[in-house]
Design a protein that fits this description.
Elements lengths: L16 E6 L9 E5 L2 E7 L5 E5 L13 E3 L2 E3 L6 E2 L5 E3 L20 E4 L2 E5 L24 E9 L3 H9 L4 H4 L11 E8 L3 E7 L6 H7 L6 E8 L3 E8 L4 E13 L2 E11 L4 H32 L11 H14 L10 E8 L1
Antiparallel strand pairs: 1-10, 2-3, 3-4, 5-6, 6-7, 7-8, 9-10, 11-17, 12-13, 12-18, 13-14, 14-15, 15-16, 16-17
The structure holds FE2/S2 (inorganic) cluster.
């Protein structure tokens, strides 16, 4: 039976920009392989710094082009030397000698690409030209004075929907990250959850909350903490912790690239302005955030393995409202936007942590 690649099974979810790699990963004249929606891509950067992206599959005998060589902004296949330019045109077939002509049926698919804020984004849509209404997701405070940012790249054994839910889910933090991020205090938390046409916005009434390192190191004056968790279609989450009147803050933004149904590559941007701790944060913050994210890697692998064994059969509480809202938006687009669009709505929820 012919395998249908994920890119052809996800309806309107393919009509977006997805991150293929960080800008740092892409060296001049070195092919780089990345998989999005089960479509393997080859990317390279030319001497002028421009990035090209083609399907990582030679049109001759389907060898991975990413194992070939880049020269003069073209990629040469490692098997018989067919050479493709940055548009995917086959410009040289060595076995045909000087008389070889370019044939359009030898072309390899090319993909639009944008570099933004240190990430390389590829348009996976059906149309060759990106939808101008859809832009790569902006990373908060990137390059803003007083703030610093860094990326973490992490492979997860679970799908994008469940990862987005995990990154927004507060009740799990007192179990999965106990002693690291937030401890159980048996407090009632109230929040407002709003679904718009393409986002899920959660605002917590939680000004006395304390998160692990924040309590001890970041917030000695015990300023009120403002906490919002937002999801933006198709795969972006932004979690803000702001102390006082924007005096200090810590923002975790994740964009999850679907590699396959149960494998995702997550690019997490950590933006921080930690006041007097700012100069030393680069020595301990990346280590701390890596420990926390690895705890999520483990619990997400657990859920991913369970969901591969059996279809989902979820029971929900009011604390799961954001899960249901995220699923409704993604499922509607995955269905090819069949039936009525999920309606914007707002709900109050409360739960104990
Ligand atoms: Fe690529 Fe033959 S397989 S040139």
């Amino acid at each position: 039976m012919k395998k249908i690649p994920m890119r052809e099974r996800v309806g309107a979810l393919r009509e977006y920009w997805y991150v293929a790699c960080t800008s740092e990963d892409l060296k001049v004249d070195k092919p780089h392989s990345s998989t999005i929606l089960e479509t393997r891509l080859v990317l390279w950067r030319n001497k002028q710094g421009e990035v090209s992206v083609l399907r990582d599959r030679c049109s001759h005998r389907n060898v991975f082009l990413s194992e070939g060589k880049v020269k003069k902004n073209c990629i040469k296949c490692p098997y018989h030397g067919w050479t493709f330019d940055s548009e995917g045109n086959c410009v040289n077939v060595p076995s045909e000698g000087e008389n070889g002509k370019p044939f359009s049926n030898r072309k390899v698919e090319r993909f639009p690409v944008i570099e933004q804020e240190g990430l390389v984004w590829v348009w996976m849509g059906e149309s060759k030209e990106p939808d101008p209404e859809k832009k790569p997701f902006p990373m908060p405070f990137y390059g803003v004075k007083g703030w610093k940012t860094y990326y973490m790249v992490t492979e997860f054994d679970n799908g994008v929907t469940h990862l987005a839910e995990n990154f927004m889910d507060v009740p799990h933090t007192v179990f999965v990250h106990e002693g690291w991020f937030r401890d159980r205090t048996k407090k009632l938390v109230k929040a407002t959850v709003e679904r718009t046409e393409n986002s899920v916005l959660v605002t917590y009434d939680q000004t006395e909350d304390a998160i692990g390192f924040a309590e001890r190191l970041l917030n000695p004056k015990k300023l009120p903490l403002y906490h919002t968790d937002n999801f933006y279609m198709p795969n972006n989450t932004r979690v803000d912790y702001v102390f006082g009147n924007n005096e200090r803050g810590f923002v975790i933004t994740s964009t999850s690239t679907p590699v396959s149904d149960f494998k995702s590559q997550v690019y997490t941007c950590i933006s921080y302005n930690l006041g007097i701790l700012q100069p030393t944060a680069k020595y301990w913050l990346p280590w701390y955030t890596r420990q926390v994210i690895e705890q999520d890697v483990e619990i997400m692998a657990n859920q991913g393995a369970s969901l591969q064994e059996e279809e989902p059969d979820f029971k929900s509480t009011p604390a799961d409202t954001l899960h249901l809202f995220i699923e409704s938006l993604r499922e509607w687009e995955e269905s090819g936007c069949e039936g009525p669009r999920p309606k914007p709505m707002k709900r109050e929820m409360d739960f104990w942590i």
